[in-house]
Amino acid sequence: MAIIEHAKYYSNEIYNVSHSHTSCELIYLTEGSLHIVTDKEEYTLHKNDMALIKSRQHHTITVSSEKTNCRYIAFLNPWELKKQLVRPDLFAMLTDKSTSGMIYVKNVSNAKIHFDEMTDIFLLHSNIYAELGTVLRLLSMFYRISKLEQVPVAHAGKQLAESVRVYIEEHFSENVRISDLAYHHFVSPGYLTHVFKSETGMSPRAYLSHIRCTRAYDLILHTNMKFAEISDAVGFCCSNDMCRKLRDYYGLTPSEIRFGKSIS
User: Other CB atoms closer than 10 Å to residue 233's CB: what's the count?
Assistant: First the structure.
């Protein structure tokens, strides 16, 4: 199943369209204004504003006909995303309605590039790996901004762990060094490892290995790339290193993943 179920750029008018869906709806406004009402919230989006309407949240959308209204709309499958990547925080953001059925952030001027990517991927029917990458970049950015807006003075440890996690997810294919991350955040490698493990339950190195293994698994399963090419694409030092890590992580070799065995 796909993570991106729909992604398109719209400029048509909408009058009080009331509905809900199991997928999550992301809206990014590039011109005009748009009004959204749920059972708990009511917001008006303006240029560069973005909203996330959670799974199964009933809502009503109205677009004024008084001026040009241009917007991106994307529907994401949160359960497919959860299956492909272990990120309980992102899954909760997409599905947990206990506090809010919708999240709204203002003036996200750099979101357009991510919505363009999602639209292209949807139209070209790209593989799950391409979907996962662009969706993760957008949702991580949205999560970070929404948390900063909800909690003006966030806990330093949580901020540090979140920053490191986002960096790992965006640069896993590169030579990620914990010492460089620590230097960039003005802390010692030992302190960074301690804080990250306290907040996430695993060390930065273990999380980096987890990300590389899940990406490698997807590429092995969904592409015809050679194993050496995949190991290089996801940041392993060689194909033997990738084989060893996948066997430790999944209990399967790359050949077993590609040619028939599945995770028990």
Answer: 16
